[in-house]
Amino acid sequence: MDCTSESIAAAPKAVLHDHLDGGLRPSTILELADEQCYTGLPEDEPDALAAWFHQGDAGSLESYLRAFDQTVAVLQTEAAISRAAFEAGIDLARDGVVYAEVRHGPSLSTRRGLTREAVLEAMIDGFDRARRDTGIVIYGIATALRHETDSADVARAAVRYSHRGIVAFDLAGPESGFPPDSHLEACKIATEGGLGLTLHAGESDGPHSMWRALALCGAQRIGHGVHVVDDAEERDGELTELGAFARRVRDHRIPLEVAITSNLDTGPWATAADHPFGALYRAGFNVSINTDNRLMSATSMTREYTLAAETFGLSDQDLRGITVRAIEAGFGDWDVRREIIEAIEAEDG
Ligand SMILES: [Zn+2]
């Protein structure tokens, strides 16, 4: 590990976009499969399984998403979900994360009879245990899948836990052909029930998908949102002129939960240097740095911060600013978030 990585590993970090079913430990997947008599795993050794999950050459969002069939298969009991949530909190804390929002689709874990409520309850239980053990502040986001029809039921279940650690509602899954405003009822239930709204958009589809999420659904944050650059003129790696929509996203300080490695795995950019994160940051967009799927993208917050710092020449101060703005964009208790921000700023001198 070089000096940059060492200081980044130790620095406090915040993650707003991390999927529970995209971040399991390979050894845990093997143990959970054994416990639940699931025999469909493609490998039976942790290293080989990790290599199988690393979808570095998936090439499209649709093929990348197929790997989740295997993690979802073992997240079908309360004990398994609680353990995965606990270990996510532990692993993020070890990675220097002090504030986390981790998401999961409760409907994915109902194959063996669990209710959506039981799934959310088990997830919160795991987060609470991780928080007690490490001090990490960790909240849950309930995700519905945009190609399914039960989003309103997911939102209703999530609202029941809005006072117990579920802070937002999300729409994920294949983007093309599944506009977020097909789920207006769910978005309304979630926001009326007091939840934050962060929707995946502008990940593989263009700015119109983000516009629908913001203008029609009322999203407060956007998962990814990197395709907002399609509404801007770019020259020599800089956004020279913003279109009306891109300008609004920047001027309204819409938080974009960017995950560089995940985008490289699924999108058109060959290397990190080609990714629009640097241009968006320099043009003043409110971008955060996220893992998305630690297992499938073989990444961590330290790795993502290091990648952004080294590729786009970000200083420690730039990274601290990104962390503080991410916590400001969080949906968790403000008193707790303000304390974390004050501690980071005090460290800064
Ligand atoms: Zn995501």
Major sheet = 8 strands, parallel
In N-to-C order, the SSE pattern is HEHHHHHEHEHEHEHEEEHEHHEHHH
Which overall shape is indicated by the principal axes computed on the Cα atoms? Answer: globular
Oligomeric state of shown chains:
single chain
Strand content: 15-25%
Overall mean pLDDT stands at 94
What top-tier CATH class fits best?
Alpha Beta
* First and last CA, distance: 26 Å
Q: Which ligands accompany this protein?
A: zinc ion
What is the correct CATH architecture?
Alpha-Beta Barrel
Give the number of DSSP strands: 10
Helical residues, percent: 40-55%
Q: Find the CATH topology.
A: TIM Barrel
CATH superfamily: Metal-dependent hydrolases
Give unreliable regions as ranges.
none
Please tag this protein with its features.
single chain, 349 residues, TIM Barrel, 8-stranded parallel β-sheet, two-stranded antiparallel ribbon, 16 helices, 10 strands, globular, binds zinc ion
Summarize the structure.
By secondary structure, this protein is α/β, with parallel strands linked by helices. It is 46% helix and 16% strand. It has an eight-stranded parallel β-sheet with strand order 1-2-3-4-5-6-9-10.
